Amino acid sequence: MSSNLIRGTFILTLGTFISKFLGLFYVIPFYSIIGGDDAAALYSYGYVPYTIFISIATAGIPLAVSKYIAKYNAIEEYAVGRKLFKSGLVIMLLTGFAAFVVMYTCAPFFAKLSLNGEQTTYTIDEVATVIRAVSFALILVPFMSVTRGFFQGHQSMGPSAVSQVVEQIARIIFLLAGAYIVIHVMNGSVVTAVSVATFAAFIGAVFGLLVLYWYFFKRKKHLDKLLEQDKGQTDVSLFSMYSEIVVYAVPFIFVGIAIPLYQLIDQVTFSRAMSQIGLANQAVSAFGVLNFSTQKLVIIPVSLATAFAMTLVPMVTSSFVKKDMALVKQQLNKTFEVLLFLTVPAAVGMALLAEPLYTVFYKYSELGTDVLRVYAPVAILFALFSVTAAILQGINEQRFTVLSLLTGILVKLSLNIPLIKLFETEGAVYATALGYLTSIVINIVVIRTYASYSLRPLAKKIGLITAFNVVMAIVVMALYGILSLVLSTETDGPALLIIFICAGAGAVVYFALSQKSGLLDEVFGSKLDGIKRKLRLKKA
Fold it and tell me: Which residues form a coiled coil (predicted)?
């Protein structure tokens, strides 16, 4: 179990990390091409509604389909999964096109909502143009999502991982080339450049889809052999099939749109709150820092949680259907161990090195540094919410996911404007953290109640992870203090050198302490032993 979970998670994590890192590093040249925080805010105005629409259009399909197929594969009813896949392709093509039509048609409404009906740096028509450009991707992405879910249901994570990377590479190449040509070759406007950049999501989807279907035809013989082993004792009608899929999918929709919903709340309340405290002239650029610049950095550690969620659902579902509760608890323990072991130091390091990080990726900014410093630890909450929500899917208590998210959203809505008035841009981050914390507490209570699961067996490891992060933080802060005396954090080269030295030293300290205490072996187990043996053989 642990080996399969770690292997599947490693494959998806690798693909997701590569995809997210590409999605992070492209912002350096893109930010330079489009020219600052105001243009970044325009990009966010288009992408936040798109992210919500794409989550609704796909209806949580990758995870819902993977859970459904894993369930029936566990009892050797392979034909049921294939039937779902074939009909799902047609339905996803229809829902994707419907979502495209709605988003394209309603673009002026979303633009007006984003700008609170006011003409700021950009007009409502300009924002609507960007929203319409990104809406084309809705036609293909749902179609692609059902194919990813099909592979994940067979616990084959490679196709999803590779397609994510190819999709991201194609999107970024088109995005950067298109934006550069519009501004520096054609002398076009920032609005046109950002529109081309958002249309790149459609181009990426084309390439991602091609990769998935290459894998499908390559593996079709193996998949057909599984059909030959089908017991044929279960005949599920399409109505019954989709009734079950809807039950699975609705909570996945909420999980998928969690971060975009929080961003949407900022999008429709931020300018108003800033205006009420006399900072209307700073609202657009500050929103760009909040919802584009820092968010791009913070989301990186969350990719691990996303990979875990994709891997965890079909595995826990399979164990739960077989009523092997001991295995379910073992899978949950391993998930929390690896998740916390990797995400906590990443978030802590990002908070400690916020100033040079922001300088390297964008430009020196006091506001960017301050927001990133308080935003970075929220990545841990993003990750925990994704994983606890995935666990609820696996133990068939997905209805509580909706309850927990809506409660968190209510907390965010209630506190966002008051906290922005008190703490300005950072107030929006505090409201997000409190909302997510509320959702996580609800999820953990439900898991404890319905899976008889306790976090107590993890107490020692959580304590060690916390202690090692404290030691790592002390080392990083000491080095950072010394280096900042001789190197400037306000220019790219010296800031990058500070990051390499401090992050490298922090990683060495953290992993050395983990190795010496035995925590590293306990968390990664046999998988780590296998890697060590391979390294010894190579040396020999």
Answer: none
Of the candidates 225, 539, 499, 232, the residue with the CA atom closest to the CA atom of residue 352: 499
pLDDT per position as a tens digit, 188-239: 888 899 999 999 999 999 999 999 989 888 887 877 777 777 776 667 777 7
DSSP collapsed to 3 states, 255-269:
HHCHHHHHHHHHHHH
Is the Cβ–Cβ distance between 178 and 195 less than 8 Å?
no
Long-range pairs of 503-509 with CB within 8 A, sequence gap ≥ 24? 503/349, 503/353, 503/476, 505/475, 505/476, 505/479, 506/345, 506/349, 506/352, 506/472, 506/473, 506/475, 506/476, 507/345, 509/468, 509/471, 509/472, 509/475
Q: The tokens of 498 are what?
A: 């500070």
Lowest-confidence range among 16-20, 268-272, 387-391? 16-20
Residue 358 predicted with pLDDT over 80? yes
Q: What is the full DSSP assignment across 117-181?
A: T---SS-HHHHHHHHHHHHGGGGTHHHHHHHHHHHHHTT--HHHHHHHHHHHHHHHHHHHHHHHI
Q: Is 48 exposed, middle or buried (0-12, 13-18, 19+ CB in 10 A)?
A: buried
Backbone φ, ψ for residue 323 (5° rounding): 60, 30
pTM above 0.85, yes or no: no
